Write the structure tokens for this entry.
Amino acid sequence: MQFDLTTKTLHFKKPARTSRGEYTLHEMVIVTATRDDGTVGRGECAPLPDLSCDRGEYGDLGHVRSLIDNAMASGDYAAYLRPYPALLFALESAINEANQLPLLYDTPFARGEAGIPTNGLVWMASYDDMLGQIKQKIANGFRCVKLKIGAIDWDDEIRLIEFIRSRFGRDELELRVDANGAFGPDDAMDKLNQLARYDIHSIEQPVRQGRWDLMAGLCRRSPLPIALDEELIGVNDLDGKRRLLDTINPQYIVIKPTLHGGMTGTCEWVDEARQRGIGSWMTSALESNIGLRNVALLAASVYGPDNDFPQGLGTGLLFTDNIPYGIELKGSKIYITQ
């Protein structure tokens, strides 16, 4: 199998804002795998600059080529690339597509027979902007909405949540929030108590990663379920995953293959979580349609055809110049179209 590398930059329609800052560009390396019979598969390597454990590793394509060559020569490329989750995800995606791996490509979703429900993502912005996003998501048929919180005035964010709940009860609309680590150790519990009044499904990463004791205490005492996200970054070996889950014991984990170990690491996280009664779901990490398609294929395989739990896969409309790749959001579900 031959591997080729190209780079591409995509542009966000408007800045994607989190409590850590904002993104205006999406830089990626596209890995193309070609079999001897000419069959081609592609994968996307796009670490997030201020977040991924392997950020800064892929600016030199010669270095990326060397990592791939050494990984393939090792006899276990997934093990070799554990420290490089973004590249591992890209290489796995390209190889699996070129080989049409049945585990991923022989599902109702992969055959275009079923869609995957996804949440409607509301980005941090001004109060009026976020309110407009919320109304549009609901009008588009989403029955699960996820709000990025932690970057505007807290009282305004509570007012937004009050607006939603005054019009849609928990049976009509599932509401998730993602703090991206914005809460401090002194105010986290108070904010969790305030949010609990509004029938919130879960909150992702209320405090910054790396404070296992603090997070474990919040998970024990929080009146609403806590999901780990950034906390999983850089925990690439199996023993480390087990220690983290046993120490913190969250209610959920949210898995992004680009950040959390590629497809191999994602499956490890899901398996270990299931053994402990911890729920999980998958989301994209702002990938183009190449990466998004592969996250969706993996989610369909891991969670099965009857899963109606919304995944975080509604990011394909973020870019002005996304790459067409046979995947499309229709209403509140994402579908393979090619």
